[in-house]
Write a structure and sequence with these properties.
By secondary structure, this protein is an alpha/beta fold. The chain folds into 2 domains: 166 residues, Rossmann fold (3-Layer(aba) Sandwich); 91 residues, 2-Layer Sandwich (Pantoate--beta-alanine Ligase, Chain: A,domain 2). It is built from 10 helices and 9 strands. The chain is globular and about 60 Å long.
Length: 271
């Protein structure tokens, strides 16, 4: 497995590999990330993973400083999962990044309401990666469903010939969606956190029995009583992210909530 640290070496790699399957990450890899690598490996060409904690997507009071960084362990995992190359630029990589806006119609919903800077930072750094790497395919986990939609829209609007692939959520045995931020939970918080997926499953079972407003109110109350600070519990169209008042095909049910300083998200798609 080749480890690339400079844009010069990355350019050499790109010149010698024409079909690149690109998996962008911020490191602290878990089975969810590795499922993206497995998906990329199923395509012809080479699999390139980036590991870069992107400062552009963090606000001034967010967890950039304490975001878990586990490079040596990450590299071992990627090597064991047949990754061909890893791009790990230094912290100054973002300084050369052109700041770009994400589609406001998709941004000003869900996570974008409380984190308005986040998606602009995501598309800006990804555009920088895309310009350097020219991948044929790129892979994103559907736990971050809004991010997937925004990147897909960005690729379409920018006329970039890159196929984007959404990969299903990978969960812990108790149902908690795998996330790098799970490592920041205390043992007690970790026990509480599994309730996010339990709430989503309960909503799925009770769709049609109660109005969506009742389901929202009931389950926000449950989460609050468990100790969560709920950012949102949303029933929305899975393409536009517009809130809906009645269930319909391809409804996204999405949750974001904090346990003290640790922000967790999850979702289910009702087809």
């Amino acid at each position: 497995m080749q480890i690339i640290n400079s844009t010069k070496d990355l350019d050499y790699f790109v010149q010698n590999n024409h079909d690149i399957n690109f998996v962008p990450t911020m490191g602290n890899l878990h089975e969810g990330h590795l499922s993206l690598v497995h998906e990329a490996n199923a395509f012809s060409g080479v699999t390139l993973v980036s590991i870069y904690v992107n400062p552009l997507q963090f606000g001034p009071n967010e967890d950039l400083a304490i975001y878990p960084r586990t490079l040596d362990v990450d590299l071992e995992k990627l090597k064991a999962n047949s990754c061909d190359a890893v791009f790990h630029p230094d912290t100054n990589f973002a300084k050369d990044t052109k700041k770009l806006p994400a589609n406001p119609l998709l941004v000003k919903k869900l996570c974008g309401i409380s984190r308005p800077h986040f998606f602009d930072g995501v598309v800006s750094i990804l555009n920088h990666f895309f310009e350097l790497i020219h991948p044929k395919n790129t892979f994103f986990g559907l736990k971050d469903y809004q991010q997937f939609l925004i990147v897909k829209d960005f690729l379409n609007q920018s006329n970039l010939d890159i196929a984007i692939h959404g990969v299903d959520i990978v969960r812990e045995r108790d149902g908690l969606a795998m996330s790098s931020r799970n490592n920041l939970l205390t043992p007690n918080q970790r026990l509480i956190a599994k309730n996010l997926s339990l709430i989503l499953n309960d909503i799925y079972v009770n769709i049609g029995k109660y109005s969506l407003s009742n389901l929202r109110d009931q389950n926000i109350k449950k989460l609050t009583n468990l100790g969560f600070d709920v950012d949102y519990l949303s029933f929305c169209d899975s393409t536009s992210l517009e809130e809906i008042s009645e269930i319909k095909p391809n409804t996204l049910v999405a949750i974001a909530a904090k346990l003290e300083t640790v922000r967790l998200i999850d979702n289910i798609l009702i087809k």
